[in-house]
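Dear Dr. K.,

Following up on our conversation at the group meeting, I've run the structure prediction for FeoA family protein from Thioclava kandeliae. I'm pasting the input sequence below exactly as I used it, so you can double-check it against your construct before we proceed with anything downstream. Let me know if the numbering doesn't match what you have in your notebook.
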Amino acid sequence: MELGQIDALDRTFALGEARKGYRGRVACILPVPGSGRLAPEEMERRLIEMGFIEGVEISVIHEAPFGRDPIAVRVGEATVALRRRDAMAILTE
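The predicted C-alpha cells came back this morning:
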C-alpha cells in the first residue's frame, strides 16, 4: 500500500459507525476477513450490486430503535437496509 493510499484511509469513516443523519460519499469497500458472515470477495460484490460504488453519495436515514441495528441508507436514488457489521466494510469520507 502506498503512502497516498494510507493518507486517504486516515480520512475515512466506517459507515457501520455512522449515526442517523450522517451524509458522505463512499471512498472504498474494504471487507475484513472473518468480520462478516460472507467471504470478503462475496461481501464486496454484494455491496457493489446494492449501489455502494466509489464516489456515490450516501446518507443514514434510519436506525432501528433497539441497538441501532440495522440501518437504512440512502444510496443515490435507492434505500438499502444493512446490518452494521456489514456496513463496517464501507469506508466513507
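Two things stood out to me. Helices lie at 3-10, 40-49, 84-87. Residues 58 and 75 are 5 Å apart (CA to CA).

Best regards,
J.T.
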